[in-house]
Amino acid sequence: MTVLDDARALHGDLVRMRRDLHSRPEIGLDLPYTQERVLAGLDGLPLDIATGRALSSVAAVLRGALPGPTVLLRGDMDALPVTERSGVSYASTEPGRMHACGHDLHTTMLTGAARLLAARRDALAGNVVFMFQPGEEGPGGAGLMIEEGVLDASGERAVAAYALHVTSAMIPSGLFTARAGTAMAAADSVTVTVRGAGGHGSMPHRAKDPVPAACEMVLALQTMVTRRFDIHDPVVVTVGSFHAGTAENVIPAEAVFGATLRSFTRESHARIKDEVAQTLRGIAAAHGLAVDVEFDGTAYPVTVNETGAVDHVAATIREVLGEERFFPQPRPGAGAEDFSLVLEDVPGAMVMLGACPPERDLAKAPANHAPEAAFDDAVLADGAAVYAELALRRLAAG
């Protein structure tokens, strides 16, 4: 039987695991139930398994019977602080937590791939590292796993790394896509606190009002990205929170807003924080105010796919599943991924997989992170097969 045949024979097991994980979502770096479920799914396989010290990760190494290099396959495991409204029968039982980004599918598919590859250990020319990662949604779990040695878990540095990521909208279920070069944006977060002096709303001249200055800053950031960055190397700034004051007739002493910064090249990513800080400090000085500009330390760099790795992905999917199942990703996505940290050290590719349920309108379906987001279980077996075949074929190439 082929890898794909064996994967489809596992479909029922994969659906049960995915729905179990979906109903028991955990967030951040501490995922005890998810880790336990992964370890149970790997039980009995000929793997060298290590769990994380700083997080609930699992790094499992399959050592092939034949000599060869090491390939890394990654699946992220954490959920989001979202209250689920998907309407599925196996919805989250944890209030305020939801697998709204499909990481439950990634974890399940990677577990299936471990089973498929373990069954072929005698023909495996090298090693496979299965990277089960917590903390993709902000806490930077990939960086912690790298610090704990996941890239060298087999005893040598991996020569290639691959990750799949499902989407609940835009891409038809079962279709894969990837692109060489920039695949996803870099992301930084900034919190801005504008400090003035409070007073009565009837006498603004006796106060130092931070609200107009903060509003000016929000608008100036939009102008800044169009005047200081090339339109062919875009930057996106979105202010998602703004807080000031407690009453309509009281001038507050401070105003606070938060923004996300997205950039698509390493050059722009290196510049964006300085440009933002310079703009905000200039406006504060013009108003006679102080400003604190604090950047989140867990920024994700640009996700850059290697050309050869994308060619390997495309050829593998087309040969295993059919020519029509892969199409080139036309442009980078503005989302960010900490798999980018892996790809800074190991050539590889992030691959997107459509998982929009067939009963939903592709163009109107809620996107990843939405409380109504839902994913099609039908992609689980094919995803597991693609993970396994990417490793098998890359190792066979030496």
Strand content: 15-25%
Class from helix and strand fractions: alpha/beta
Strand order of the largest sheet: 1-2-4-3-5-16-6-15
Element-by-element helix/strand order: HHHEEEHEHEEEEEHEEEHEEHEHEH
- Based on CA atoms alone, the radius of gyration comes out at 23 Å
3D structure, described in words:
This protein is an alpha/beta fold. It has ten helices and 16 strands. It has helices at residues 3-9, 11-23, 32-42, 103-118, 141-147, 210-228, 266-286, 307-321, 339-345, 380-396; strands at 47-51, 58-63, 66-76, 125-133, 160-167, 176-178, 181-184, 186-195, 199-200, 235-244, 250-251, 254-263, 290-295, 303-305, 326-328, 348-354. The strands form four sheets. The chain has an eight-stranded mixed beta sheet with strand order 1-2-4-3-5-16-6-15, with helices on both faces. The protein has a four-stranded antiparallel beta sheet with strand order 10-12-8-13, with helices on one face. Helix 6 (210-228) packs antiparallel against helix 7. The chain is elongated. It starts with a helix and ends with a helix. The mean pLDDT is 97.
Summary tags:
16 strands; 398 residues; eight-stranded mixed beta sheet
What's the arrangement of secondary structure elements?
Elements: H1 3-9, H2 11-23, H3 32-42, E1 47-51, E2 58-63, E3 66-76, H4 103-118, E4 125-133, H5 141-147, E5 160-167, E6 176-178, E7 181-184, E8 186-195, E9 199-200, H6 210-228, E10 235-244, E11 250-251, E12 254-263, H7 266-286, E13 290-295, E14 303-305, H8 307-321, E15 326-328, H9 339-345, E16 348-354, H10 380-396
Parallel strand pairs: 3-4, 3-5, 5-16, 6-15
Antiparallel strand pairs: 1-2, 2-4, 6-16, 7-14, 8-12, 8-13, 9-11, 10-12
Helix pairs in contact: 1-10, 2-4, 4-10, 6-7, 8-10
